[in-house]
């Protein structure tokens, strides 16, 4: 009798549990439907952006198969002859490719060292201004060059630093020796960094300014009362507040480190020559679109993507080891 009662109780408990699970499942589905009905406008607004990334970023990854083919547009993607790793062997044995890689790495390192800290310093300088009118004016002036195309930016620098530019006109009127900075291959890399700083340093301050606005002003006041000077307040309050953002943007920058500005390099390549201005992006352009060697160009582009992904994973792992959140866990 006791055994029968226990069996009945067990069956009742199991039935109750399954019923509860069913109700929980229906409740979960009902909650999701309610959320869909509630947020359908936001989802509809988000759909074009999601479709763009799915089609032109993730869907386009299938095109990397031409890196392993002797791709001929008239034969199509799948009918072109499969050559395996031949394009990569040719690429790794091509001195022009390694010259483009070396130029890319040099310019990327210079941008990382000289450009990356500039928006941080400018954001901290703007944050220290007490008058809002002055701050807004400086921000507007600093943001403006970002909205200019590289065609205009390069033209401005040519009009100022070119062989017949403003600088040489002033030097010529003063009977001094003129310099052609725009056409000098030795000065090309510093010139590129100066152009990037002038164009994008103001725009890069937006995220850092947003992070600085979250710092409690009472911390600065308490530190000042305790005798901390500007440098100690910066080191112990300001810098720790923006450090997670700095690490995050640094990791993202490392993933895109081999993209040093296609338009900027293409527009100035004729002035200084391919030895100074050829980077991976322009190498792919001239090999693929101009030269018609699409498989070789795709192999170079795939190499660039793989290196960028490896740098992101490595930098994110190092950030975790240092106690930072990084891009993902």
UniProtKB/TrEMBL annotation:
One of its GO terms (biological process) is transmembrane transport. Its main location: membrane. Residues 1-28 are annotated as: Disordered. The gene is lplB. This is ABC transporter (Permease) for alpha-galacturonides. SUPFAM superfamilies: MetI-like. Signal peptide: none annotated. The keyword Plastid does not apply. The keyword rRNA-binding does not apply. InterPro entries: MetI-like, MetI-like_sf, UgpAE/MalFG_permease. GO terms for cellular component: plasma membrane. The chain crosses the membrane at residues 40-60, 105-129, 141-161. Keywords: Cell membrane, Membrane, Transmembrane, Transmembrane helix, Transport. It is a multi-pass membrane protein. It is found in: Cell membrane.
């Amino acid at each position: 009798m006791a055994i029968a009662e226990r069996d009945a109780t067990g069956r009742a408990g199991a039935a109750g549990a399954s019923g509860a699970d069913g109700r929980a499942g229906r409740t979960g589905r009902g909650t999701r439907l309610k959320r869909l009905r509630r947020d359908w406008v936001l989802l509809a607004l988000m759909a074009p952006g999601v479709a763009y990334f799915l089609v032109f970023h993730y869907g386009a990854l299938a095109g990397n198969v031409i890196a392993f083919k002797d791709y001929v547009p008239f034969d199509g993607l799948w009918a072109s002859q499969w050559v395996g790793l031949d394009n990569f062997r040719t690429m790794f044995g091509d001195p022009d490719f390694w010259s483009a890689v070396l130029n890319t790495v040099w310019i990327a390192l210079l941008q990382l060292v000289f450009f990356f800290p500039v928006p941080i310093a400018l954001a901290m300088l703007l944050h220290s201004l007490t008058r809002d009118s002055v701050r807004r004016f400086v921000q507007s002036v600093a943001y403006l060059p970002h909205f200019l195309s590289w065609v205009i930016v390069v033209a401005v620098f040519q009009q100022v630093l070119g062989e017949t530019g403003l600088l040489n006109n002033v030097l010529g009127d003063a009977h001094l020796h003129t310099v052609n900075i725009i056409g000098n291959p030795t000065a090309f890399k510093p010139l590129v960094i100066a152009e990037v700083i002038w164009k994008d340093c103001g725009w890069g301050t937006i995220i850092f300014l947003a992070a600085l606005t979250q710092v409690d002003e009472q911390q600065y006041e308490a530190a000042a009362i305790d005798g901390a000077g500007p440098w100690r307040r910066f080191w112990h309050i300001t810098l720790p507040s923006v450090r997670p953002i700095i690490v995050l943007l640094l990791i993202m920058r490392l993933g895109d480190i081999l993209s040093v500005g296609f338009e900027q390099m293409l527009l100035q390549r004729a002035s200084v020559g391919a030895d100074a201005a050829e980077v991976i992006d322009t190498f792919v352009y001239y090999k693929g679109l101009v030269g018609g060697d699409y498989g070789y160009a795709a192999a170079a582009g795939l190499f660039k993507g793989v290196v960028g992904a490896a740098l992101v994973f490595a930098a994110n792992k190092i950030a975790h080891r240092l106690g930072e959140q990084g891009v993902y866990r």
